[in-house]
Amino acid sequence: MPLPSTAKPVLKLSRLAVACADRLFETASDRERFLEALATPAAYPPTVLWCGEPASPLPFEPLPPLSWQPPWVTRFAAGSRTGQHPLHEAGAYYCLDSSSVFAAVPLLTLPPAPSLVIDVCAAPGGKSLFAWRSLHPRYLVCNETIGKRVGMLIGNLKRCRVHPVGVTSWDSAVLAAEFRGTADVVIVDAPCSGQSLLAKGQKAAGCFHPLTIRHNQQRQKRILAAVTALVRPGGWLLYSTCTFSREENEEVAAWLMTTFPQFVPQVVPMLAAYQSHLAAFPCYRLWPHQGEGAGAFTILWQHQGKGDSCPLPALGDRWRWQSTSQPA
Fold first, then answer.
1. Confidence (pTM)
2. Which residues of the chain have pLDDT under 50?
3. Which of 76, 117, 261, 323 is the most exposed place for a label (fewest CB within 10 A)?
4. Which H or E element spans position 119?
């Protein structure tokens, strides 16, 4: 169960949140546990991704690893000020939450050293760092459409000494046109209604409203429809969100497989116990009432169709920022 928190007030949930729970769970007990996790947010342990070898000794009290947690990710006891430690400023680690780690776990099943990884919605950089740390790609492209978030992304890449990497700030359709057929791995941590923010005690106004959900679903489909063109034959596409609605998760996944049948969902053995009960195909859910994180959805596809593979384009001065050499 989630760790108890006395610092967060009990939230009053809307009828739309209750209706969402009704669509997600068949049993009353599951619905009640889910809604309780949203109404009484838990103090989830601070989590860090080590950019190199973990520090010895560790700067805070570590917690036992979760079954799907890679060895270069550490959870610390609640109250650990990971973002204020000198190791953070020095770029030894990146602070994230366990739900973000869960969503990226399918990358651990892929062959190492891919030629090119593209993170389509990269800011603030957590999934990019996970891909860089786990796969050691020959080149990493981090794209962020929202201009005001690009500085944050570049700052984290610099601080954590990520290389070689290039940053772009393009719409997904432009990105697809520029990098068509180049990527071994494409990551889409999609913009979503952000319903899991409630489980962290944060605000997410209107996150259960049908119009909000429909708007995000349409945006997710548009992004995915564009970036399928990025994936080389034999390459992989990872899709994830931090929301609960079926419309933004299983339904988007089903739509993609109907529209682009060359993308075949992949089993992730490490997440077998987290298979979504809302789908017959391999996809995975982390629920807030499981006590391991605020919530996430993730699915990995492989491009098993035909097509052309293309070399990385020469963008010249069109990069927003680029680092190609080993940092000092």
1. 0.94
2. 1-9, 328
3. 261
4. strand 117-119
